[in-house]
Amino acid sequence: MSSSYRHYLGVAVFVLLASLLLLTAKTAQANPRYAAIVIDVESGDVLHAANPDATRYPASLTKMMTLYLLFEALEDGRLGLYSPLPVSSYAASRQASKLYVRAGSTLPVETAIQALIIRSANDVAVVVAEALGGSEASFGRMMTDKARQLGMPRTTFRNPNGLPDAGQTTTARDMATLSIRLMQDFPQYYHYFSQTRFTWNGQTITGHNRLLGSYPGADGLKTGFIRASGFNVATSAIRDNRRVVSVVMGGFTAASRDAHMADLLDRGYARLNMLQRGDWIAQADVLGDSMDLPAAEPASSAPATQLATAQQSASFSDALQAIEAGSGSTFQSEMGAEMGSADDPIRDLIARADSPRTSGAWAVQVGAFNNADQARSLASRAADQLASQLRDVRVSVAESQDDRRVFRARLVDLQENDARSACRSLRATGMDCMVVAHY
Asked: Which is more confidently placed, 398 or 129?
């Protein structure tokens, strides 16, 4: 290849990367939940970063830490792959997505691993938490302590599944650290992350990590979604014996998240190719960021352990200003189409973020029990039934104030019309209910 050709190719890649950074900044302004990071595991180079240390909700990426602690228990002999894990009524009552395990039953450890990765089962995450930590709260503290040990300073866990909790937060960089440590510390279990289906009680359970089948070289890890987080994904891929780990958080839809992840991986590998050839672009401090790694090892060996703090390159910022003035709108229009339609749930959530939330004063009561776990289980099942109908439904188990010890299972904070419509829908499925005022 002639030096002039390599020079122009380097310029093209440089402009391409700069355009991506400009686009990322505009996307982040339009979507305050967006964050991303792309890392070359062998060298520790951060190939792309957007808000990598900004606080985000992990959603079901949380389950990677639940799995990390479960793998530790396997390695130190506390559990075996076929050890039975008991299912409590509280675990069984967790809302979807779930495996619908029955209270009083048991679940083999290997099935729990598959259910966490493939089904992203919230009930199974609590089964594991109770087996290892005694309770969900205790296990959350164990998870946070382990995060600190692994070099995840900005992560706090409160539950094992990623269900909404304002105190459960992380960053894209910390999730990348966790992804790498899972591969490094437990390579013997990493193959589970590439599985897309498993069998449970005679039924084939399929997953929803579409990147495993659509992106060449992708071989793990995990997806996640709650309304507050948007669509998250952590992905590891290998191409030409080079492994890259990437995390995207805050996608508007699963499809747009996956498309954006594929695009980031492609651009990351394009930059790696330039770096390997020693072109001048390899010397440009595009992101001013890298991981603090030990000596490089082959791509198939254990990845690095910790990510370094981002440092913005001032010289590159100056270059971006010059490029921004002359850049076209092609990338922006492509990303606009990719990020989903106007009625995407996260776009709607952002639009409503600055508006005062008006909670309704009505509730749907689905039963009254002398056991709080039974009440919570039925209320959670009703909420699952109404997931597509009610966006912000909240489960409440209220104890009566009289001498009788009764726990009322309710879906609360509803407007009257919504409550009556929800009750009609539940009755259509055979579930008894009544609409009550709730203050």
From this structure: 129
- Whole-angstrom distance, CA of residue 217 vs CA of residue 240: 9
Helix (H, G, I), strand (E, B) or coil at 60: helix
Which residues lie closer than 8 Å to 263 by C-beta, 6 or more apart? none
Torsion sign over Cα 357, 358, 364, 370: positive
Query: Per-residue pLDDT for 15 more than 90?
Result: no
**146-190 residue pLDDT tens:** 999 999 999 999 999 999 999 999 999 999 999 999 999 999 999
Q: Write b or e for each residue in 412-426: b if 16 or more Cβ atoms lie within 10 A of its Cβ, otherwise e.
A: bbbeeebbebbbebb
What amino acid occupies position 259? A
Residue 376 has a CB neighbour count (10 Å cut-off) of 21
Cα–Cα distance, 290 to 308 (Å, whole number): 6
Q: If 0-12 CB within 10 Å is exposed, 13-18 middle and 19+ buried, where does residue 312 land?
A: exposed
Bridge partners for 238 per DSSP: 243
Per-residue confidence band for 330, with pLDDT thresholds at 50, 70 and 90: very low
Nearest one of 219, 220, 241, 247 to 301, comparing CA atoms = 241
**Rounded to 5°, angle at Cα 187 from 185 and 190:** 115
Q: Where are the alpha helices (DSSP H) in 193-253?
A: 211-214
User: Could you give the CA distance from residue 434 to residue 436 in angstroms, rounded to a whole number?
Assistant: 6
Q: Strand ranges (DSSP E) for 87-144?
A: 106-108
> What span, in angstroms and rounded, lies between the C-alpha atoms of 244 and 242?
7
Q: How far apart are CA 104 and CA 201, in angstroms?
A: 16
Gap between the Cα atoms of 345 and 351, Å rounded: 10
Give the DSSP letter of residue 306: -
C-alpha span between 235 and 229 (Å, rounded): 17
- Rounded to an integer, what distance in angstroms lies between the CA atom of residue 71 and that of residue 113? 9
Closest CA to 345 of 251, 238, 247, 209: 251
What counts of helices (H) and strands (E) characterise the chain?
14, 13
Which tokens go with 339? Answer: 């990020």
Other C-beta atoms closer than 10 Å to the C-beta of 389 total: 12
Instruction: Please give the single-letter amino acid code of residue 85.
Output: L
Q: How far apart are the first and last CA of the chain?
A: 75
Residue 56 token pair: 């985000």
Helices (H), 217-329: 254-277, 314-326
Number of other residues whose CB lies within 10 A of the CB of residue 148: 11
